[in-house]
Every structure is written in structure tokens, then in C-alpha cells.
Amino acid sequence: MIKLKHIEAIRNGDFTGLPISSTSTAVNMTGSWKFFRPTLKPKKSPCFEACPLHILIAEYMQEFAAGNHLAALEIIRRNNPMPAVTGRVCPHFCQSACNRTDFDEAVLIGDIERALGDLGLTQPYSVENQVCHEKAAIIGSGPAGLAAAVFLARAGVKVTIFEQSEAPGGLLRYGIPAYRLPRQILEKEIKNIVESYSIDLRCNHKIESASLDNLRKEYDAVIAAPGLTQSSIPETWPETPTVKGALELLAAISRDEPIPGEDFVIIGGGNAALDTARSLKRLGKTVHLIYRRTIDEMPAYPDEIIEAQSEGLLLREETVIEEIIDNGRGLSLNLHRSRKNGNRIEAGDFIETITTDFLIAATGQESSSDFQNCAPELLRAGDFAHGAASVAEALASGRKAAATALRKFGRLPEDSTTDQETQNLPPITFAALHLNYYSKKPALKIPQLDEKTRSDNFSEIHLGLSLEQLEVEAERCFHCGSCTTCGICWFFCPDVAIAINRESDNAESQILFDYDHCKGCGQCAEVCPRGVIEMEEDL
Predict the structure, then answer these.
(1) Distance (Å, rounded) from C-alpha 69 to C-alpha 399?
(2) Contact assessment for residue 161 and residue 202, using Cβ atoms and an 8 Å cutoff
(3) DSSP secondary structure code for residue 121 in this structure
(4) Cα(336)–Cα(360) distance, rounded to whole angstroms?
(5) Alpha helix stretches (DSSP H) within 12-156
(6) What pLDDT was estimated at residue 14?
(7) DSSP 53
(8) Counting C-beta atoms within 10 Å of the first and last residue's C-beta, which end of the chain has fewer, N or C?
(9) Residue 27: what pLDDT?
(10) What stretch of H or E contains 313?
(11) Residue among 320, 316, 332 nearest 363 (CA)
(12) How many whole angstroms separate alpha carbon 216 and alpha carbon 462?
């Protein structure tokens, strides 16, 4: 083995001729050697990007895991005025996009949102004392109308909501069964909003198209959010009292009206079809659900399909009705196997004839209002604006309509968006994370009522967990693309060129790089768990 130069001299304590600095790094700016420098580059997490409301999920998860429940609630409420509702009925696009899915299991974002929403039911919204200069009228008190009201009221606009039904909520009240959304939760959520923001809510007040001109004269902005509250019944079906729409039947059940008949056939594969079928079963009815495609192609939420099957719902897939005969005592239905013809579904081979007391259409929704073709300057929100969608998408639409009205009032710049602070951030991928610091930890199991216990009542199925239990779940969040001042970059920096200031409220000043001494080795970027440190050329 060849001996390195000076090895023997060093062993003897002789350092003559070695390149040893006689000054400290306070004088010797080693940072002048670098070609690259680290920078803090926050990114959009996949949960944020998937959420229609663009809630800062990673940010509130950090607060929640630390036990700062009210701070976490405040972050959610910035964009979502109804977290107790969405925590229950949203399909949780955020959870489906969670990076942790590729590691073990997604974080239970929806259940944490629900728990925080329930906490918020007794916490009034913080409202700044603003002078009301403008007035806005909102038609409809569903999720879109309520969201528009909240974001307008926050800006100091005096809001009046006109609701045609006897109680607010729209399809939240009359289209979603109580086993998914308990009525007392919805009542408290809406009451908190109305009272916190001093919203003038007028129920049993239907707005007709003829009165829109007067409404525009009285109010500075009018937002139409009446929803799609009427079922679309196929034109080929007979007009008879034994043919009904799913939405109308759900509304009757919600109002505790008596439901005649014992045998029901429901056509459709969406949430309305499943909600109707499961509700009727709880009332002791015999229910058959018929869908023209396969179960895997059903547009209903997957969890709802699984729960319906576990409750014993009879579901016939790849089946269509070719002929409906009203025999005076009920309906006879000729069932055929469905077959695909390009993008169309047609009737194939005959299967059998069945009889039923009622045939229920859950094949589409439409508006019951008469001002679809009114002036284009009428602001639209929710399902009435973009078609049937999720509650979260309706809330986002209401927020967007409010922003449009505020721009009209000169309260927002013309080029502003509802998510100005994050719209330009790049997304972060699973591959960009460094997950050596994490261990496998499956998600918590959420308790729910068993099939037998819930079979004949509308008690809420999902029971939820306590805030303290869910703190453990929140700790599983990777906080993708968001610096948490974990200190790993500081620990691994060989030049002690990183300082951490956890007291700063400004995320950009929580991690400070000493560029005078950083040699640009890139170690900090390599070890950052959340992928928020990047190396860029040192010009």
C-alpha cells in the first residue's frame, strides 16, 4: 500500500506544509467556493391540489397534531365554511390523492375534518367589524348559496338568502339521508353561519323569473344557486302516480311523510339511487336497484356501494327496462340484458318480467326554477351553474361567485383568484419526498354501526373518533411540500450554515441559509423529508 504524503509527519505532530487555515470561518467566507445554493421552495401538496376548495391541509394537519385544534379549525374555515358537513358527505378527493397511499395508507383527512367541524359547531365564526356598503341577494340556501353568503359577508356585504323550502340546506337537507348527514349537525352548521355573519335568511320565499328585475334594482348583486332539485324522468316512461323521481322521494322521507307501497324498483347507479334504496330499506320496503352497466362502473361513491351491499341491497347490474306496463294495480317491467353499441347501451336478450308498486327514476337531475335563460349577467353558482357535482364543488362554486361579485364591487383586483397565495406553486410528487425518516403506520380504523343495528333506523353510520385519538392520525401526514422546521437539514449541514427560527410567523424566514459559508454541497436538499429545499445555480 502506497503511503500518503505527510502521514508520518502528522503522526509525529509535524503539520509543516499542510494547507491549514490560521483564521476562523468568520473571516474565511467558504461560501465563495460554491456553484449552487439551497433555497426554500414550498410546493402544492397533492391533497391541496385535489381539493375543490383548496384547503391548506398540510398546514392544518401540523396544527392539529400539535393539539392546536382551534388553530387548525381556523385554517379550514378560511376556505370551507361547512367542515362538519363536508367531513361526512364529501368523497374526499384529497384523501384519494394523499401521497401516503403509495407508502402504506392514506391519512384519514375526512375524519379529521369532520372532528374539527364538529368542534366548530359551538365556535362562532370570527367576524371583523366592517361597514356594509353593498347588498347581495342569494337565491337558494344549499351549499353553494351558503358559501357565497359567507364569503360576501366576510367582506362586509349585507346578504339576504331567499329559500323556497320551509328550511335551509337544499339537497343537504332534502337529498342526503340522515344516516350520512344527521339533521342536528346540519342545523347547527347553518345556524352558526347565519348568526355569526348576521345573514338575513328568508325561508318559504320562492323567487320567480318575473321578480328578478326588481331584485336586481334592490340589490347590488344577485347570485342564483337554486340547485338541481328535480328528478329527470325518461320521456318513454308512463305518466302515472306509481312512477316517481328519486329526489322527490328522498325529500318526502326527509320530511317524515308517509311512503305508500311495499315493493320498489330504482333505476340508476349514482348516489341518489343508492341513497333512495338504502332509505327505503330502512323503512321496511323491498327494494331492487337496477343499473345498466357493471357495479365497477357505477358513479356512486365506492364506500356507499360497499355499505349498500353489506346492508343486503339487491342490485342487478347490466340490466335495462325495455317495457313498462301499468296494469292498474302496479307496474310490470320487462327486463333485458344490456349490451353496448359504441357509446350507447341497448336492450339485449330478454331476462324476465317483474312487478313492482313503484318505479323510481334516479337517472338525472334538473332545475325546478324558471330563470335558466335569464340575463347572462345573473351570477350562477353550484349545480345550477355547472351541473350535478359534490358538496365540496358546490361550496367552491359559491365562493367563486362571491369573488366575482366582490370584483364587481371593486373589493378584489380583476386578476385575483380565490387562491392567489398558492396558485403559482409547483406540485410535489411522491418521488420528490425523502421518506427514510418514516416508518409504516396504517391508518386508524373508524368505528361504524353494524348492518343489523342500522337496518331499521337513520342513525349515523360512521361514529368518528375523539380529537385526541385523531391527533395520532394527523401525525401520519407527510406535510408534502410544506416546511415543518423539523431540523433535519440543520442536523446534516456540514458547514453549520443553516439556522432555524421556529418563532417566525413567516414561512420564508423560518429556515435561514448562511450563504457566506454554505459551500453548496446539496446535502440539505438531499435529506429534506418534504422536498421543499432545492439547489439552484449560484450566480
Answers:
(1) 24
(2) yes
(3) T
(4) 18
(5) 46-50, 57-65, 69-79, 83-89, 93-97, 109-120, 143-154
(6) 67
(7) T
(8) N
(9) 67
(10) none
(11) 320
(12) 44
Rounded distance between C-alpha atoms, residue 163 and residue 199, angstroms: 13
**In this predicted model, what pLDDT tens digit does every residue of 62-84 receive, in sequence order?**
999 999 999 999 999 999 999 99
Q: What angle do CA 253, 258, 261 make, to 5 degrees?
A: 100
What radius of gyration, in Å, describes the C-alpha atoms of the chain?
Answer: 30
The string of pLDDT tens digits covering residues 196-211 is: 999 999 999 999 888 8
The secondary structure of 406-437 as a DSSP string is: HHHTTSS-TT--TTTTTTTSPB--GGG---TT
Q: How confident is the model at residue 2 (pLDDT cuts 50, 70, 90)?
A: very low
The grid coordinates of residue 526 equal: 438531499
* C-alpha cell, 390: 359534490
Residue 335 · residue 352 · CB < 8 Å: yes
Q: Please answer whether residues 347 and 338 qualify as being in contact, where contact means their C-beta atoms are separated by less than 8 angstroms.
A: yes
Cell digits of residue 216: 336586481
CA distance 250 to 299: 19
Q: Is there a contact between 277 and 254 (Cβ–Cβ < 8 Å)? A: no
The residue with cell 418563532 is: 503
Instruction: Tell me how far apart the alpha carbons of residues 474 and 532 are, in angstroms, rounded to a whole number.
Output: 20
Other CB atoms within 10 Å distance of the CB of residue 158 = 18
